[in-house]
Amino acid sequence: VVNMGVIGSLIKQVWYINVPLTAISICVLAFLYSSRNVAFPYWVGLLVVPGVIYSLLGGRTYRTTIKGKTVLVTGASSGLGKQLAIECARRGAAKVIVVARRREKLQETAHQIQSLGSQSVVVPCDVSDAKAVEMAGKEIEEKHGTVHVLINNAGAGPWKHIEDTSAEEARRMMAVPYQAAFTSTRVFARRMMQEKNGHIMNVTSVVGYAGIPGAVGYGAARWAMRGFTRHLRADLRELGIGVTLLTPAEICDTEYFSNKSGCAGEKSYSHMPYIFHLCSTIFSITSKSAAVSGVNAMEYGWSIAAPPAWLVQPLLLLESYFPELIDWIGRLGGAACRKA
Q1: Close Cβ partners of 76 (under 8 Å, ≥ 6 residues apart)
Q2: pLDDT band for position 13 (50/70/90)?
Q3: How confident is the model at residue 2 (pLDDT cuts 50, 70, 90)?
Q4: Mind telling me the catalytic residues?
Q5: Which of 219, 328, 333 is nearest to 274 (CA)?
Q6: What CATH number labels 70-337?
Q7: Which pLDDT score is estimated for 17?
Q8: Could you tell me the residue ranges of all domains in the chain?
């Protein structure tokens, strides 16, 4: 795995750094060969193909096996977090610890986990409270031992324009997911570091890759998760701990993307650009599909899972070279969301 990671990293760096120079060089070579009436070796263009493929798939990290492991999932009461917990049980996890604020919803998740043959532990906890997470972490490790796989899925926050977002709302949106993920990782990574084994997956959104109107606080928190994951991967690589980022497109069956009264997305739906509503009709995925993609990435050792891959991975690649294009896509219909 280490060798593959090194080789893959080299290929990726060559792709990232040399693509403009390679393109220019090929054009110059084409001109020189054509002026000399010599057949141009088009195979030269194939030199960048490995880098393109690698960039589309995502980088490498240490892989893990879910079977027989203790897995902890935050935000597991509904939506993607619930499906991630269930998918880990389906893969043979020995124990799945589910964490969220709503005990009743966690019990529902726990029953489904148990029906798949895994043990389930319900831990009601507000992960935005660092002290509560520290206390819960200590109790979990005393009773259940090492958490081998940590999935930081908890996330919250409405889509709003800057003038509609209070300082307190911005603080809360940064508290969950970013601060919550940081604290949970700090708590549970200690034993992983001692054992030089384990895997951490952080969940963010494609919103963290583009500038989108009406998502100032929400989007900034997702950018924070993206940056945190990248630095965390570098920080833990020498200790043999894998770090994966799950960044799905719009998920059609979660409360967050529903405008029904009482749902998490009630106040956000009207602030989302029209392109998002279009995607929800044509390109959205289910939380189960996103969960499968995320767990696959951990088991295969991919640093990024971006379902649906055929849509999101090319967008992430484009964002590296043409960020203004991605921002333009994100702005489509956005201006109409602002109140007159």
Answers
A1: 82, 84, 85, 98, 99, 100, 106, 109, 153
A2: very low
A3: very low
A4: 218
A5: 333
A6: 3.40.50.720
A7: 44
A8: 2-57, 70-337
